[in-house]
Amino acid sequence: MIRIDQIWLATEPLDMRAGPDKALARVVQVFGSARPHCAYLFANKRANRMKVLIHDGLGIWLCARRLNRGKFHWAESWRPAQLCLTDEQLHALVQGLPWHTMGEAGVINLL
Prior knowledge:
Elements: E1 6-10, H1 20-31, E2 38-43, E3 49-55, E4 60-66, E5 82-85, H2 87-94
């Protein structure tokens, strides 16, 4: 239903009370612009909640996900302010798995 060509992860936390306009402003601040068919991921400070802003070419979608137990394995703050993820890394991330060890086709390349 929604085409996503690139997945971008922000390393700095976002206030989860942010609505679509505030999330879009944060995307522009961190990534420079909201490009069509791109998804932008943000987590809160505790990394147990995530918001995803998707630009589908016509408008924006704002999705939320919460883990009832544990945390999302988010990028460390010492990394760049933004990272590009693969589809496999996104699937691992939203399940609460260590996405940063996943390579292409789900191959684990880092312990």
